[in-house]
Amino acid sequence: MRLRVTPKASRDAIGDVVADGQGNGALKIAVTAVPEKGNANAAVIKLLAKSWRLRKSDMEIVQGATDRKKTLLITGDGTALLARLTPLLTTNAMQK
User: Which residues of 24-44 are buried (b: 16+ CB within 10 A; e: fewer)?
Assistant: First the structure.
């Protein structure tokens, strides 16, 4: 899953899916943590794990550790993850 992360935000939040420069979708994430020593990355994983009711150990940032554009790997049963995340992402987008 692609993410677009904004560190040092005023609050932690999961935003909409937005298009990047190549037209790929990325989930917009804002965290209050500073982008030093992996603090913002840890905050992203903590926020998503809590919101999506997944274990933090099932998530890993596999690309973009020092960039705002990140790739998140979520391990587990793909069908079950899709069934769990689709309504959450849809609900989040509708609340905007």
Answer: eebbebbbbbebeeeebbebb
Chain CA centroid to CA 84, Å = 15
Measure Cα distances from 37 to 16, 40, 42, 65, 89 in Å: 27, 8, 10, 10, 29
Q: How many domains does the chain divide into?
A: 1
pTM: 0.85
47: domain CATH number is: 3.30.1200.10
Tell me the pLDDT tens digit for each residue of 40-94.
Answer: 999 999 999 999 889 999 999 999 999 999 999 999 888 888 888 887 766 554 4
- Is it the case that residue 37 has pLDDT exceeding 80? yes
